[in-house]
Amino acid sequence: MRIDLIKTSQGKPYERVSDYYAGKSVFVTGGTGFLGKVLIERLLYNCTDIESIYVLIRGKKGFKSENRLQQMLDVPVFDKLKALKPNALKKIILIEGDITKPDLDIKSSDEQKLIDNVSVVFHSAATVRFVESFENIMKVNFEGTRHVMDLSKKIKNLETFLYLSTCFSNANKLVIDETIYPKPKTIDEVYSFIDNYGDNSEATENFINGYPNTYTLSKALCENYVDENRGTMKTIIVRPSIVTPVLKEPLPGWQDSWVAATATFSDIARGLTKVIYGDPNVVCDMIPVDYVCNFIIVAAARGNPSDDIIVYNSCSSSSNPITWKRGADLYLGESLRHGKYDLKPRPVEVSMSQLKVNLLTFILQTTPSFLADLWLRLKGESPKYLKMQKRPVLLRDILKYFSSTSYHIKSENSQKLIETLDKRDRAMFPCDPRTIAWQTYMPLFCRGIQKYLLKPKQ
Ligand SMILES: NC(=O)c1ccc[n+]([C@@H]2O[C@H](COP(=O)([O-])OP(=O)(O)OC[C@H]3O[C@@H](n4cnc5c(N)ncnc54)[C@H](OP(=O)(O)O)[C@@H]3O)[C@@H](O)[C@H]2O)c1
């Protein structure tokens, strides 16, 4: 693929990525999420002449959307922006709405603002839970995408519609190229399955046929829907792999959600997981959240000058791979330096033999937990360690598919786009996975989890 840079109205390519955003407004869904917060912060921090960022937020758990916007800005990832560029925050414009509702359930005056002003839509909102009812996953991910696209099509001067998918939207394949694959199921088949079987786990496993879960399948369905229904919208799909804490800016180590690798590494370092099902040589495809968000900003600015759809895999495995085992060992090494663990941790055992995994789980996890509980009982305290084992074992089993499958995730399109960045833009929007030094990143990852996710509980 050739990357031709998007041109200004005078026909010249934008010199800098941030120039593209000058005087433009963007619409972000999923702004309160892990990626969304970093995306908004990076846009405001680096694209200083951006006009406005419209952020879709729903009311939730008794909190109104205005309060939720404030809660979002109270997160430490915005501290640097607040300290150095406080006025930038005024560019955030709240749009109250819910992607599961037709027209996003937004006020007609808000809809008009979007229609009149927005140049780029970043659709990031989704449910990323692997254990969730199939019906709800379809409601949020599929119907949500349909509704966001319906609205985007009404926007007068839309330049790009960017959809956040996942590298694992085709997790039933071993080679994952930057292309849209044929849809795994029709929407009618999916809804008829849900009507007939609900969340029957055995039937679901048969139905999803090689996919690890309904989340990844839903993302494949969304990609196909986006492709088939984009009309004349210039469309980009960015597929991150496993998104991990901030590497560089704005706050190294920052992370705010327990997902896949984060929870697994943390469980290993806390002595809760000592054995996982997998192949020691299988690569864990991680990409820091700031790298993903910088890449998204670059992609929307210069990633699709044609009318065709373009797909970018934002990932590390093809250019700078690290195995699950090495990632876990580096993380554990840092954790041991700080001595923060519940049960004495040890380097994780990785095996493709289910029998060995079960046996080692009994010897290395269940037995010490039982003995630790016995000791607590003898002291007159309540037992807790066997109970603590349940979640890590469940998580390990949920991730089994990923820790045992050798994917070849291609990223030529992404690399080519990154190559178009000059030295200054590379420094401002670091996104080249080859620049991740795992030796120092994994200890940072560990310190970030201890500081931002585990700290409140200690
Ligand atoms: N995290 C990863 O490792 C990863 C990897 C690959 C791809 N991705 C993709 O990246 C995107 C962002 O993921 P993330 O990690 O940032 O997820 P996240 O932290 O769970 O955030 C999800 C966002 O979606 C919003 N949302 C959910 N349902 C909504 C609804 N009905 N109406 C409006 N907003 C709604 C949430 O808003 P509330 O705050 O209101 O719930 C939140 O802002 C997703 O599309 C995901 O598939 C993530």
Please provide a written account of the structure.
Helices cover 47% and strands 12% of the residues. Strands 3-2-1-4-5-7-11 form a seven-stranded parallel beta sheet, sandwiched between helices. The chain has helices spanning 17-21, 34-46, 65-73, 79-84, 108-117, 134-154, 187-197, 201-208, 214-229, 260-269, 289-302, 324-338, 354-378, 385-398, 400-404, 412-419, 423-428, 438-454, and strands spanning 25-29, 52-57, 92-96, 118-123, 160-164, 175-176, 235-240, 242-244, 275-277, 286-288, 310-314, 349-351, 408-409. The mean pLDDT is 94. It has 18 helices and 13 strands. It starts with 16 loop residues before the first helix and ends with a helix. Helix 2 crosses helix 11 (289-302), helix 10 packs across helix 12 and helix 12 packs across helix 18. By secondary structure, the protein is an alpha/beta fold. It is globular, with a radius of gyration of 22 Å. The protein has a domain at 17-253 and 286-319 and 407-434: Rossmann fold (3-Layer(aba) Sandwich). Bound molecules: NADP nicotinamide-adenine-dinucleotide phosphate (NAP). NADP nicotinamide-adenine-dinucleotide phosphate (NAP) binds at residues 29-36, 56, 58, 60, 98-100, 124-128, 140, 144, 164, 166, 240, 242-243, 257, 259. Catalyzes the reduction of fatty acyl-CoA to fatty alcohols. It catalyses: a long-chain fatty acyl-CoA + 2 NADPH + 2 H(+) = a long-chain primary fatty alcohol + 2 NADP(+) + CoA.
